[in-house]
Amino acid sequence: MQRHYDELVRLCYECVLDESRWDVLLEHLIPLSGRQQGGMVIQARGERYGKVTQYHRCSEEAVQRYADHFHRLDPGLDCMPQRQVGLWYHDWEHLSANTLKLHPYYQEFMRPLDMGHNSYVKLYETPSHNAYLTLITERCCSTPEAGQQELLEQLSPHLRLAGAFASHLAALTRQLHHQSLLLEHSSHCCWLVDGQGHLVFANQRGEALLQRPDAPLRIQQGRLRARRDGAPLSKTIQRAAGIGGPPSAGLVRLDEQQRRCLLVVPVTPNLLPHDSPPLVLLTLSDRAMDQERARDLFKFTPAETRLAQLLVDGLSPEACATRLQVSITTIRSQLRALLRKTETERQAELVAMLGRVAGN
Predict the structure, then answer these.
(1) At 232, which CATH number?
(2) Residues 9 and 101 in one domain
(3) In degrees to the nearest 10, what's the CA dihedral of 184, 190, 194, 195?
(4) Are 107 and 73 a contacting pair, CB within 8 Å?
């Protein structure tokens, strides 16, 4: 029996990294515990019923009927939300003989499908749901023996730990996925570097920008460098990393024509692992104003859209008139239209609004 117990413990912790191993655990645990069927049930917080997510040796008919209707009648799920994690529930111990005989869950669901008794244990609980493991004894089989019940009690701490670890890992995975979605769908190029400018991480936009021949940044010997001579990128990164003084943020003008500035900020130390060197986050918008979006939002005319783009690029009204080869009077008229349509009062406010439309 010790060999079987050790195998079950090993399988418990394999479930942490591989969700499919719960099915293998059920395959081993069911006969060793004196049961014939089993499964996993997820119960959303505040809901009366649970959903079977994995099952072993249960008939398709039983799973479907439980999902369609009988999960609402399961008396085991009445008490399970309040029970401690890792504490087993056995219906023949917690329900009266009269309830087991007359309750519609047993009369209409369990007995017609040759199922006799249920055992539940709460694996973990989160703010959104609880997870249970259920083991079922068939009607033709005797109630599990004392030694088989003792095996469940001995295994319970390991089931509880494995459930907690698996739940925590799943939550971290979801969080990383959500953060990745936000990062990769951002209109900004992002790079993470150390104090010497060595590249640690880049999002997809950041990687793509570095591949362009006209990019204002490049990688040289593993370090992020500015293409424009005189751009004080290395010194700004060092200041942000706290080299030679307290960490401080800075802006680096990368090119004169497009007037793009690279934002360089120190990463808060408590966000880093304890053994990590100081890191610096660099962000750069690599997207001009979304002209189609601006037209849809503000009902700009084509001429107003062209002016809006030049204003976002940093040109003055006089420079816009020269670039578009129209009079300054025309530009001022179009500018008043832009202010009116965006419900802004000043040119700076207008440019900020259009920048937000672009995600800048």
Answers:
(1) 3.30.450
(2) yes
(3) -170
(4) no
The alpha-carbon radius of gyration of the chain (Å, integer) is: 32
Backbone angles phi, psi at 202, to 5 degrees: -140, 140
Helical segments of 230-290, H only: 233-240
- Are residues 161 and 86 part of one domain? yes
| Closest-CA residue to 33 (of 125, 134, 124, 135) | 135
Task: Find residue 130's DSSP bridge partners.
Answer: 43, 125
Which of these three, 161, 179, 197, is where a domain ends? 179
* Helix residue ranges per DSSP H, the chain: 2-17, 21-32, 60-68, 76-79, 91-94, 97-102, 104, 146-184, 204-211, 233-240, 291-298, 302-312, 317-324, 328-342, 347-358
Residue type (1 letter), 273: P
Q: 10 Å Cβ neighbour count for 277? A: 11
Q: Retrieve residue 299's tokens.
A: 């009902």
Distance separating alpha carbons of residues 116 and 93, to the nearest angstrom: 13
Distance from C-alpha of 37 to C-alpha of 231, rounded to nearest angstrom: 69
Domain end point (choices 236, 263, 285): 285
- With CA atoms as reference, report the closest residue to 318 among 335, 302, 301: 335
Could you give the 3-state DSSP secondary structure of residue 264?
strand
173-187 pLDDT, tens digit per residue, is 888 887 777 677 676
The token duo for 324 is 């578009």
pTM over 0.70: no
Are 214 and 67 found together in one domain? no
Q: Are 78 and 87 in contact (CB under 8 A)?
A: no
Structure tokens at 9: 């413990």
Closest to 281 in 3D by CA, of 299, 260, 262: 262
For residues 304 and 72, what is the distance between their CA atoms, to the nearest angstrom? 61
In the structure encoding, which two tokens stand for residue 11, read together? 């399988």
* Domain housing 27: 2-179
Q: What is the pLDDT of residues 83-126, one digit of tens each?
A: 899 999 999 999 999 999 999 999 999 999 999 999 999 999 98
